[in-house]
Amino acid sequence: MTRVLVVDDDPAIVRALVLNLKARSYEVDSAHDGAGALRSAAARHPDVVVLDLGLPDMDGVEVIRGLRGWSRVPILVLSARHASGEKVQALDAGADDYVTKPFGMDELLARLRAAVRRAEPAGDGGDAVVETDGFTVDLAAKKVNRGGKDVRLTPTEWHLLEVLVRAGGRLVAQRQLLREVWGPSYGTETNYLRVYMAQLRRKLEADPSRPRHLITEPGMGYRFEK
């Protein structure tokens, strides 16, 4: 059973989410501030976190950074902040998706299911291991190794890398990447791709400013090259 941690200081929103999630057979924990969220995540190990950014004790972005210090749990931001810069800041900190308030429950639940799917094993058996001169990608184990050490990727970072690696050097269009990684309702949020590609390059490329493996084709898309 999937365990969800709901973090919001609005009791009405927490109550609505808890009722709807439990009705769909999710296990649900809740927290009303950032400190409580971090404690609950450490103790209960949720499968996905739904996080408001406007918390009473700390900004939600700090909670994301705190979680990302030790966990790859999918983080779905639920916030009244609409500005593109604030969305990018949350994604850059390690969030996997962003839903603005007011929100439709059906859309939120669909986004939550997609976040959980991205974090699950691929389930296709295979033992494909792709090696470059700087790092190794194990598609079956969902691991990346660089310099003898595992590289910690968020579920969304992994999914993006996996799509590119499986394309085998072929160009993957921006719209296709967005829809495969974030879902069919996406297609124009190219800032998501810029943020996540920058994060992958920082983690994997020897010189992120001059990438050898994660290549941008301006105005078109991205490709992975060995």
Briefly summarize what is shown.
By secondary structure, this protein is α/β, with parallel strands linked by helices.
Descriptive labels:
single chain; 226 residues; alpha/beta; Rossmann fold; Arc Repressor Mutant, subunit A; 2 domains; 5-stranded parallel β-sheet; 12 strands; identical protein binding; phosphoprotein; phosphorelay response regulator activity
Mean pLDDT: 90
Which shape, going by the Cα principal axes? Answer: globular
Low-confidence stretches are: 122-127
Fraction of residues in helices? 40-55%
What's the CATH architecture name of the largest domain?
Answer: 3-Layer(aba) Sandwich
- Head-to-tail CA distance between termini: 39 Å
CATH topology of the largest domain: Rossmann fold
Backbone structural class: alpha/beta
CATH 4th-level superfamily of the largest domain:
Response regulator
Strand order of the largest sheet: 2-1-3-4-5
Number of domains: 2
Total strand count, please? 12
Oligomer: single chain
Rg on CA atoms, Å: 18 Å
Measured by DSSP, the beta-strand proportion falls in 15-25%
User: What is the number of helical segments per DSSP (H or I, 4+ residues)?
Assistant: 8
What is the string of SSEs from the N terminus onward? EHEHEHEHEHEEEEHEHHEE
Strand count, sense and closure of the main sheet? Answer: 5 strands, parallel
Q: Which CATH top level class of the largest domain fits?
A: Alpha Beta
